[in-house]
């Protein structure tokens, strides 16, 4: 009888551990995508089987635990892109030779980002720069807020299709991402709204971090929104002195961005 009781107790403990692991995993799934670290722990102390914290350990023998990024960690990242194009309907297109990113994750789904667009000119080859530039032909953003989200997260005929995005938007109380002026023109352009880029890789620990802010001719920004969310696109308002001259939709295309995290991190986008 004692053996039966002990076996029953072990079974109850195993079921409890399994239920806890599943509950932890279900709670995490609702918050995805998010950035963090998959940390190896003592056997039985973790909720996950493998080093990506993707597969839940249902037997209570998990060896890995998920640790979302917190503001106090100061997890930084940086990167650079090649040619950048800012196109605004009815106005001259701005082209820059390079775009340099720097940022820091402020939580599991958020970051702060600044970008410097370098060697910028308009269609007439006139230099364009921030209102108070450090260098001519350089356009610098204000500090931006960034948010992780799903561009796509669908399962079709047993196959799951995932695309993760990083949405850049003004940091309150500011309402602009950046502003600029071009040589020979009295106009100042104020770029507002937000823009989503694809970010990868995800579902693995790595220092690699790549972004793609893309446009398509006759289509516009790709993508324009997170899955199930409102449109997140750019609009530019033009002013001259105190006079507002009008607004028009804009798109941002950055070619060949490559970047890295200062420390290995994972953008977690699924659980099994």
Question: What can you see in these coordinates?
Answer:
- This protein is 11% helix and 51% strand.
- It folds into two domains: 67 residues, no CATH class; 197 residues.
- It is mainly beta.
- A hairpin with a 2-residue loop joins strand 9 and strand 10.
- The protein has an 18-stranded antiparallel beta sheet that branches. Strands 16-17 form a two-stranded antiparallel sheet.
- The protein is built from one helix and 20 strands.
Low-confidence stretches: 1-29
Residue share in β-strands: over 45%
Radius of gyration: 23 Å
Number of strands: 20
Order of helices and strands: HEEEEEEEEEEEEEEEEEEEE
Helical proportion?
10-25%
SS content category: mainly beta
The biggest beta sheet is recorded as: 18 strands, antiparallel
How many alpha or pi helices?
Answer: 1
**Average pLDDT over all residues:** 89
- Envelope shape: elongated
Number of domains: 2
Spatial separation of the terminal alpha carbons? 38 Å
Give the secondary structure arrangement, pairings included.
Blueprint: H1 2-31, E1 34-40, E2 64-68, E3 75-81, E4 84-88, E5 94-105, E6 110-121, E7 128-129, E8 139-140, E9 144-156, E10 159-170, E11 176-182, E12 188-193, E13 195-200, E14 206-208, E15 210-212, E16 214-216, E17 220-222, E18 234-240, E19 243-254, E20 258-268
Antiparallel strand pairs: 1-2, 1-20, 3-5, 3-20, 4-5, 4-19, 5-6, 6-8, 6-9, 7-11, 9-10, 10-13, 11-12, 12-18, 13-15, 14-20, 16-17, 18-19
């Amino acid at each position: 009888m004692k053996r039966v009781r002990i076996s029953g107790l072990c079974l109850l403990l195993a079921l409890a551990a399994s239920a806890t692991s599943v509950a932890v995993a279900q709670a995490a799934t609702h918050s995805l995508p998010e950035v963090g670290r998959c940390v190896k722990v003592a056997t039985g102390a973790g909720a996950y089987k493998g080093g990506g914290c993707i597969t839940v350990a249902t037997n209570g023998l998990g060896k890995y635990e998920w640790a979302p990024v917190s503001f106090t960690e100061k997890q930084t990242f940086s990167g650079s892109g090649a040619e950048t194009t800012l196109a605004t309907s009815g106005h001259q297109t701005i082209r820059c030779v390079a775009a340099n990113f720097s940022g820091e994750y402020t939580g599991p789904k958020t970051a702060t980002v600044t970008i410097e667009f370098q060697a910028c000119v308009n269609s007439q080859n006139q230099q364009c720069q921030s209102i108070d530039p450090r260098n001519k032909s350089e356009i610098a953003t204000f500090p931006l807020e960034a948010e992780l989200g799903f561009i796509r997260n669908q399962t079709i005929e047993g196959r799951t299709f995932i695309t993760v995005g990083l949405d850049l938007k003004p940091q309150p109380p500011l309402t602009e991402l950046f502003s600029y002026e071009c040589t020979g023109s009295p106009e100042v352009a104020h770029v507002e709204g937000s823009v989503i880029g694809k970010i990868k890789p995800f579902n693995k620990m790595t220092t690699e971090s790549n972004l793609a802010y893309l446009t398509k001719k006759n289509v516009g920004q790709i993508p324009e929104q997170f899955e199930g969310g409102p449109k997140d696109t750019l609009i530019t308002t033009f002013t001259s002195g105190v006079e507002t001259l009008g607004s028009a939709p804009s798109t941002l295309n950055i070619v060949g961005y490559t970047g890295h995290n200062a420390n290995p991190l994972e953008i977690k986008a699924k659980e099994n």
